[in-house]
Specification:
Beta-Lactamase, Arc Repressor Mutant, subunit A, 2 domains, single chain
Length: 279
Amino acid sequence: MPAAATFTSPPSTHGTRTMNTFASALDAPDGLDPGEASLAGMLSHFALLEPVFDAMPDIVFFVKDAQARYALVNRTLVSRCGFKEKEKLLGKTAEDVFPSRFGRIYTAQDKAVIHVGSQMVDQLELHLYPGRQPGWCLTCKQPLRDAAGRVVGLAGISRDLRADESSHPAYSRLATVVQYLQENYVQPLNLKQLAAMADMSVAQLERYFHKVFHLTPRQVLLKTRLDAATALLVSHDKVTDVAALCGYTDHSAFTRQFKATVGVTPTEYRMLLHGTSRG
């Protein structure tokens, strides 16, 4: 939930289709009176799907009101935030629940979606939950509107990144490319070289990457670099050293990209980890 929506994928995956389904259902007030189209009315409809969302361990689902406070959550979000009961989250903002530096950013992003009224689709994010287990996901957020078109809240889904290893015939060739990126992430991205490695055109490579991994090759490289960076920041004192070890010749570019994706600077991330571990 970083504040800047930077690395977004083309709106063609099932996450986009899911959020567009919400949009079509909730932004079509014909036949609904103002009370039914209010957030309370919407929540009554979402509540019917609560058992479905509760049964998805790799999906975080939530609805928030116009003040960015949780109004409905699934069990995955509750457990990842270290709670046992959903009621512990309801009425709270992300700033109340998550580590302070992250929470402020998440809440600011929520308020931006609500105030601007624009959809956020498949944003690559690193989540750091209070249990200190970082995890990558793709997040979609949809503003919710009442019958008059006013934004009264938002609905969101964060989907854990997991490759569909057995479901696509091109997976083995793509896995070779991913392995190369993971072993050579300090090198600049060369799409033509990667496409030749997989015996594909560049267009095919990008299309299949997105279909199988829900990421572009550039996002995979970014994810690999930042995975390495988050690990190195625990043991390296100098951010400049970490930047170089992760393939960045420009320290400031590394800091900007890290903050845009993770939500805090590399120094703040390390302080947060150390501060959390002490508490």
